[in-house]
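Shall we go through a protein fold together, starting from nothing but its sequence? Label the sequence line and the structure token line clearly, so we can match residues to local backbone shapes. Would you write everything just below, so we can both look at the same thing?
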Amino acid sequence: MGPGRNRGWLLRLVIAFGFAQAAVSMARPAVSYRALALGADERAVGVVAGVYALLPLFAAVPLGRRTDHGRCAPLLPVGVVLIAGGCALSGLAGSLWSMAVWSGVMGLGHLCFVIGAQSLVARQSAPHEQDRNFGHFTIGASLGQLVGPIAAGALIGGPDMAGTSALALVVAGAGAAVAFTSLWRIEDRTAVKSRTAPGDRVPVGSILRARGVPAGMLISLSVLSATDILTAYLPVVGEHRGIAPSVIGVLLSLRAGATIACRLVLTPLLRLLGRPLLLTVTCLLAAVLCAGIALPMPVWVLGVVLAALGFCLGVGQPLSMTTVVQAAPDGARSTALALRLTGNRLGQVAAPAAAGLVAGVAGVAAPFVMLGAMLLLSAGSALRAPDAPGGGQVAGAAVGGRPAGAQLRRSRDI
């Protein structure tokens, strides 16, 4: 695949991811507001937010296995259908339990899309392109996180909070469907020929023992939990502090905008600091900023804190993807990415539930202190993340008779 076409598939993937993520980012705060309007307390909001990750928790590794030995692209339209349906039906649901179910469907759709998309980037990028391409890929997520909360804030409000939040969810479902327009023939089918046969499956234990995989998983879990709880609980903080939903939407989008800015300058930052130090510094700063949200402050100061936090959080996701991909054995990169996503979803189940418990006991701002502690642990693990590009360094130096790393070298022009 030539350079022009290479940029073409990545650009179309970024556009599709932008629409899918915008729908989810619009739906998550809308679900929280609708749950509050239906009589939920802070604990119930945490449970509804946690169910979003429950179904994906059990589906990630099987989907990753399938993708390692087949095509990535079919997962993308399946994910879009589930996201669109989950968003719209969450808005039409009339009870908290049915909202939780459709929130889980939305989460499963997001998982399908992300596994397919991440595997596509790993498969169609040369090793030296992975930091850059994963960074560009995650710009799609950040664009969605920028637009989604603003759209939600514009639609939600007034005396009929239940009705306006339902409208926002239906609109989010329609927006997700637009992602279909960028998915036609996005995968180069010749790349599938380099996949290993199903009989060559690498054990999960070998993947988890690869140096860099556990660190990448912890960093990703912490960063995503921070983003997730910010999205789900900043509306609750706003309700307690008298901040309007439209302002909360702008604040969440400000955080996403700073994340985009971070990813645009990721390459020079990597050249300056290297991957382990950059991950360590940004996780450490994010820990301090997250804990700071628990303190009462004017709205403009909160905006500055969220912008700085968004910049720091922008580093973790793309670099944790590269860390995991380059540490994983050949023929197990999609499975390794799926394990990373399993860790993410485990965090998305446990963190909101823990946040709801902490909020109920210590106040609605206390979950942000908990997030600060998680990010502090991630800063320590980031020091162990490998810096040099590579891959296939564990669980067998050869796969299918070829030296480890040969498949990636073969895919340099894919």
Observations:
- The chain is about 75% helix and 0% strand.
- The chain has a mean pLDDT of 79.
